[in-house]
Amino acid sequence: MYVKTLLSTSIISLLFSGCALLKPNYSDEQMHSYLFDKFDSDEDGIITKAEYMDFIDERFAKMDTDRDGTITKEDLYNSRFYTFLPELAEAVFRDSDLDDDGLITKDEMIKAEEIRFKQMDVNGDGQLSRDEFVVNDMSEFKESK
After folding, report:
1. What domains can be seen in the chain, in order of their start residue?
2. How far is CA 9 from the centre of its chain?
């Protein structure tokens, strides 16, 4: 019995450590470049507001894992976004829950991301260069809503 318990514990530990190995470990620069390229759908080196909002629509659909039109914490935890970028996913959830009710509607996310886009668009030209595109924990974002 003791051997079975020890063996089971060892196998579970290996599975969890193996899962951690599956998660890519990107530098901040690599992640910034990867995300910029995801938003820049026409690959012209600029993210237009339309490209940005199209990506947000796609992200909302992917994060709404139960397809009920809202994103709950459970949806967040079940999303690929959370699997690979938990800190950023938590910040997006926090900053998109404009009424602090514990869930995000599509309207809330769109409104929050429009604010975020405007904040990043330093020169006000309606598009984001690589230098303007900021990927961080968005800790100051919520305060400026």
Report:
1. 26-144 (1.10.238)
2. 33
Please tell me whether the overall predicted TM-score, pTM, comes out greater than 0.85 for this model. no
pLDDT exceeds 60 at position 84: yes
First to last CA, the chain: 58
**CA distances from residue 23 to 16, 46, 58, 87, 144 in whole angstroms, order as listed:** 11, 28, 22, 14, 32
Q: What is the pLDDT of residues 92-145, one digit of tens each?
A: 899 999 999 999 999 999 999 999 999 999 999 999 999 999 865 444 444 444
Phi and psi at 21, nearest 5°, equal -70, -25
How far is residue 29's CA from residue 77's CA, in Å, rounded to a whole number? 25
Number of Cβ within 10 Å of residue 129's Cβ equals: 15
Compute CA distances 62 → 2, 65, 69, 78, whole Å.
Answer: 44, 6, 11, 10
